[in-house]
Backbone:
């Protein structure tokens, strides 16, 4: 069997990455635009049948039809936070099949320079790749030359970060526009265009040491079959993923319905530490490491600032609130991270326990 060292767990991350995003979303007009852009999909989601079985474990869910909050169906078997409605094929097609995502990306990054691309890789994605490398070393393996395939690679930021960290990396992405952008930015054909229909076939036949999905797993409709495909592919040694959590931000967003919900508006279910543990045990995986951090405190700062603006307009109160919160963000967030109540987690699962150590 593999080296059974305790999982390498890391908590907290400097808030600089989130402050830029939060500053943009703190603009009242930008907040209005973001809320409007999500409303159409939310309306479609609410037209789907009520969810009766858990997204992760498939167990029956309690009847919560009288409640009108986004995440109330906590699975009694695995603890997963399920949305009220099924993510049907119709909803999936509406979410991914309209081309809206490609247009948003093209508008946001279409004019991006190679310098800006590289800076985004260095600031946001390289720390993730270095964490992946550190965990593999702590798990008793040499990551040098290991191959990694990133599924749902977007414009290739994480693929480039993996390359810089010493991995042999490539990516698959649904959006042809993002594939073109990423390959131009990296000056090599590191990304390949695919579609959701081929997801399971790609994972089943993947010739790579590591499969990564950075904020992709939560959007996979057939969660069970995807994890079965990872389990059954003997070539895959590690599964690295990040997912949104039902942490403190989910409560902020329930309190501030008139503020853009960064976490819950784009996800129809949220993971918990309990459901992640259940998932690993169910498919025979072992946690090699995890990194718990989030933007919960910056979300609170933004939500209160926008709430003050909605009630009082431009006022000194908003400025005083922001100035009071800024020095405390990292220390307050660290407390939430260490309690695993952050808005996200990055986790590396080793697959060596499913059928014995895969040398």
Residues:
């Amino acid at each position: 069997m593999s080296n059974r060292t305790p999982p390498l767990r890391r908590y907290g991350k400097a808030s600089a990455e989130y402050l830029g995003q939060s500053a943009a979303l703190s603009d009242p007009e930008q907040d209005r635009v973001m809320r409007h852009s999500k409303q159409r999909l939310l309306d479609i989601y609410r037209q789907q049948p009520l969810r009766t079985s858990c997204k992760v474990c498939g167990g029956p869910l309690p009847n919560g039809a009288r409640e009108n909050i986004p995440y109330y169906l906590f699975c009694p078997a695995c603890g997963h936070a399920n949305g009220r409605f099924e993510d049907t094929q119709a909803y999936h097609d509406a979410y991914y099949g309209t081309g809206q995502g490609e247009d948003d990306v093209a508008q946001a990054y279409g004019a991006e320079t190679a310098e800006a691309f590289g800076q985004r890789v260095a600031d946001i994605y390289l720390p993730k790749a270095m964490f992946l490398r550190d965990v593999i070393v702590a798990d008793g393996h040499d990551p040098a030359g290991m191959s990694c395939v990133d599924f749902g690679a977007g414009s290739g930021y994480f693929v480039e970060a993996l390359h810089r960290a010493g991995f042999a990396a490539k990516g698959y992405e649904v959006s042809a526009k993002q594939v073109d952008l990423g390959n131009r930015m990296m000056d090599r054909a590191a990304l390949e265009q695919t579609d959701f229909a081929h997801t399971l076939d790609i994972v089943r036949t993947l010739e790579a040491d590591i499969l990564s999905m950075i904020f992709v797993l939560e959007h996979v409709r057939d969660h069970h079959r995807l994890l079965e495909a990872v389990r059954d592919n003997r070539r895959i040694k590690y599964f690295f993923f990040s997912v949104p959590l039902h942490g403190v931000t989910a409560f902020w967003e329930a309190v501030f319905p008139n503020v853009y919900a960064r976490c819950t508006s784009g996800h129809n279910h949220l993971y918990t530490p309990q459901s992640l543990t259940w998932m690993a045990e169910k498919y025979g995986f072992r946690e090699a490491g995890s990194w718990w951090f989030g933007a919960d405190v910056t979300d609170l700062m933004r939500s209160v600032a926008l709430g003050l603006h909605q009630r009082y307009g431009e006022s000194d109160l908003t400025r005083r609130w922001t100035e009071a919160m800024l020095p405390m963000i990292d220390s307050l967030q660290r407390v939430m991270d260490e309690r695993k109540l952050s808005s996200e987690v990055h986790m590396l699962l080793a697959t060596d326990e499913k059928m014995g150590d895969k040398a």
Remarks:
- Residues 114-138 form the longest helix (25 residues).
